[in-house]
Amino acid sequence: MNNMTIDATNKSLGRVASAAAKVLLGKHSAGFAKNIVASGEVKIINASKVRLSGQKTKDKEYVRYSGYPGGQKKETYAMLIARKGQKEALRRAILGMLPKNKLQARRIKQLVIEN
After folding, report:
1. What pTM was computed for the model?
2. Mind listing the pLDDT tens digit for each residue in 52-61?
3. Which end is more exposed in the chain, N or C (fewer Cβ atoms within 10 Å of the end residue's Cβ)?
4. Complete domains list, the chain, with CATH
């Protein structure tokens, strides 16, 4: 079992997310195989202290589409944090860095985020 703890205090969102995605994929171990889910979990502490540069709290948008005409919804980073919290923003960043395949759901379950 490879358990890893990442401290997000005063680190940028992308750096923390890429470090966590790398461990979730198993690329940090010598026995890496892309078709196998790595054992262990990744724990991120102090997620509320992660920082963003510039005006990203207002400018960064999360877009989703329902498939119906007029069904595109946009949400800024600040709105997402107000609605779901800092944990969800970090989880979405990590989820975007994982491969879109059948193993994605199993890998993201190994992620634990704490404020």
Report:
1. 0.93
2. 999 999 999 9
3. N
4. 4-113 (3.90.1180.10)
Instruction: Give percent above pLDDT 70 in the chain.
Output: 99
pLDDT digit string, tens, across residues 34-49:
999 999 999 999 999 9
The dihedrals phi and psi of 106, each to the nearest 5 degrees, come to: -70, -35
Phi-psi region of 95 (alpha: psi -120 to 50; beta: other; left: phi over 0): alpha
Residue 1: pLDDT band with limits 50, 70, 90: low
**Residue listed under structure tokens 């205090």:** 9
Distance CA 46, CA 60 (A): 21
From residue 54, give the alpha-carbon distance in Å to each of 12, 57, 88: 11, 8, 20
